[in-house]
Amino acid sequence: MSARGQRGMTLLELLVALSIFAVVGAALLPVIHGALSSRADATTRIELDREARAILDRIEADVAGNIDAGFPGQAAPRFLAAAPTWRSDDSEHVILETTTLVARGVTAVDGFVGGEDTSALAIDRGDQAHVLWRIDADGRLVRQEVRPPALDPVDWSIVPVEIMSDRAGVELEFFEPDQWLDAWDSTETGPHHDRAPVAVRTTLRLDDTTGASPLELVSTVVLPVLEAIPEQKAPSEPEKPSKTGKSDKATGSGKTAHRAGAGR
Would you kindly state where each structural domain of the chain is located, as residue ranges? Predict the structure, then answer.
């Protein structure tokens, strides 16, 4: 067939085809947009969950490693937490101050060691730390650490700050044998003096920047209890019998009696 005999699309047919494509595209656009939005929301939620679990792991480690540093009249409290207050722009407050065991190693805060307290450094305390969790003036959750615990009060304004999150709030609760408490102070004179609670329940809440409901994780840590085992004396060894079948004591008595008889 010659090129002159081929027939192309008319203007009307082209307009009809474009109209069909426009209708189909308009129908698919919300579906595609919804799929992309769901993917973005899922990615944001996964990152939020990863951030929350990392923070919760650090809090759990500091709580589970709680110790009595053993300094006489120590300035670092064993366990101090005020009543919970959620994060806001003007809610600067301390969440937890404690002495705890930490992993040895080199971190950003290892350069600040007890304020160069030679009395503290005289003892091998490289795995002990005085830790402070707080919400700062900018509403950020931060962690500070002095290793090892110092004998004198700490000026936290000069201690390096580790920023954990700018959208997190933390609430702690403390379990006694029969009830949950919203605060704990081991420095007070009373039943909590120099003591840690039986268990600590942590509620961590992270705000979702997409406008969705905040992510909330709850964890309970039972603190280990160390009990002193009474010292047991080693059992005394039984007396070995002599060749005659009598004990040495009995044999010795017999010899004494014989000599006494011979003298008479």
Answer: 56-222
